[in-house]
Amino acid sequence: MIQVSGSALRLPAFVLKQNFDRHYLREALIRYNLLLLRHAVISTSCSQFHSGEQRLARWLVAHAHRTGLEAFPFGVDFFAGQVGQNRAEVDARLKEFQKQDLGKLEHNKVILRDMAGLAKRSCLCVTEG
Q1: What CATH number does the domain containing 47 carry?
Q2: Tens digit of pLDDT for each residue in 73-112?
Q3: Is 128 a residue whose pLDDT tops 60?
Q4: Residue 129, pLDDT score
Q5: Residue 3, in any domain of the structure
Q6: CA distance linking residue 36 with residue 80, whole number of Å
Q7: Quick check: is 82 in a domain?
Q8: Domain membership flag for residue 35
Q9: Measured in Å, how far apart are the chain's first and last C-alpha atoms?
Q10: Long-range contacts of 105-109 (CB under 8 A, 24+ apart)
Q11: Residues of the domain holding 95
């Protein structure tokens, strides 16, 4: 699933298989898989032990760090799926973030205004992931 625009490379499977034994490619793919697994473990643990507000703030801060973007073209339903909450809870939290001037909620768009403020409301998983 593509979440934000950007560049990508698509290779036929046979090209990947032919070049897999090159040390740098194998090592890069192994490292990518380990980081992806680490991210999944941290996200799962986070959803069990932290509040909905903390998880949403963590997701926004982490996504901004990964993409370099401060505006996301996502609707409330998308965020709800990402943080494992229902739509109404996420909508209320996003509106609360807007009241606190941490972000601005538009139709299918969230604009981050105060990354430091969001980071303070986030759990520490953001620094681990």
Answers
A1: 1.10.10.10
A2: 888 998 888 888 899 999 999 999 999 999 998 988 999 9
A3: no
A4: 44
A5: no
A6: 21
A7: yes
A8: yes
A9: 20
A10: 107/75, 108/73, 108/74, 108/75, 109/71, 109/72, 109/73, 109/74
A11: 13-128
